[in-house]
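Translate structure to sequence.
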């Protein structure tokens, strides 16, 4: 694995189109879904306008935009704290295995450790995305407790 100079920072509103490109590519690669770019751009811009719901982060590798992730806050009544839900993780193929996701995850762990109002980190992954599952296990995450069930309007 080639380690690189990786940094994590909040996404900016002027990066919505690039973030949308990343999300459209991620959905196609990981789930075979063809997303509408304009809808995704609207969704990302709407999320960025509501900082109380969470934050979008970008990963920069060797001073290039390498990927992104959305982090939402979910209240846990059992813990009386928020859990950070990691969504929409994408790293451009040419930046994979260079420490981008590991650096993002370490950044979020440090945020949780230093904030008494945060309880932990969760994410979900498409059941057919074996590469992502392996990456998450490698950094110490588990799938021991919960399964995700959903209903989505079509």
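Result:
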């Amino acid at each position: 694995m080639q380690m690189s100079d990786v940094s994590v920072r909040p996404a900016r509103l002027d990066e919505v189109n690039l973030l949308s490109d990343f999300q459209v590519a991620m959905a196609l690669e990981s789930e075979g879904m063809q997303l509408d770019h304009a809808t995704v751009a609207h969704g990302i811009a709407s999320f960025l306008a509501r900082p109380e719901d969470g934050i979008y982060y970008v990963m920069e590798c060797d001073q290039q935009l390498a990927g992104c992730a959305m982090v939402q806050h979910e209240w846990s009544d059992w813990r009386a704290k928020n859990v950070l839900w990691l969504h929409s993780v994408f790293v451009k193929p040419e930046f994979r295995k260079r420490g981008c996701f590991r650096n993002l995850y370490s950044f979020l762990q440090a945020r949780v450790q230093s904030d008494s109002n945060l309880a932990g980190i969760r994410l979900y992954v498409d059941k057919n995305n074996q590469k992502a599952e392996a990456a998450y296990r490698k950094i110490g995450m588990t799938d021991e407790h919960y399964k995700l069930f959903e209903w989505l309007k079509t």
